[in-house]
Amino acid sequence: MLARMSKFILVAILLCGAGMAGADPMMDAITELQHGWAKGYYSTPKDQQNDYFEALQVKAHQLSEKFPGRAEPLIWEGIITSTHAKYQSIFSAGGTAKAARDLLLSAEKIDANALDGSALTSLGSLYYKVPRFGSFGDYDKARDYLERALKVNPSGIDQNFFYGEFLSERGETAKAVEHLKKALAAPARPGREDADSGRRAEIQQLLNKLTK
Prior knowledge:
The longest helix is centred in the middle third of the chain and has 22 residues, at 90-111. By secondary structure, the chain is mainly α. It contains ten helices and no strands. The protein is globular and about 45 Å long. The chain starts with a helix and ends with a helix. It folds into two domains: 46-140; 154-212, no CATH class.
């Protein structure tokens, strides 16, 4: 009986150890940032978004400092920083957008393919969304980054959405519709249901505009 109990305890310890070994504190923290971003972007009242993303940007920066040399935290700090710029005054947004670009460029240098090429996707969107000043408003760079992102993840919802949005703004409507439909048909991302739901609504809205 004691021998059997000892064996049970040993197995339990080994299983517990295996579970702990499989835990990834960095990715757990990134998951929290992802949900925080989705909440801020899709659910937070407009008059609260600037303050919300300012606080979330601080959390993202703390994660980047905690895991230096890793692309993933830099990517999410860049995404959150660029989103924060959207809600700032015109006097602050330019500097924040540049900070986001620098974070994403640093992540690209470490691992351009990290998180399904999210640094490439985000850089592409920055280069066409931010008005032309400094090195922004560069549509050639935007196209290059977005096409590189699609090579990393051809069926991705974000990769196809941002490329489709870019093409629609460049007047390439037929090709834009093709990629937006691919974005709608993209596989669900486990654990990213909140972001997927909001993104699909954006995609459908743009598709309706292009096909009416």
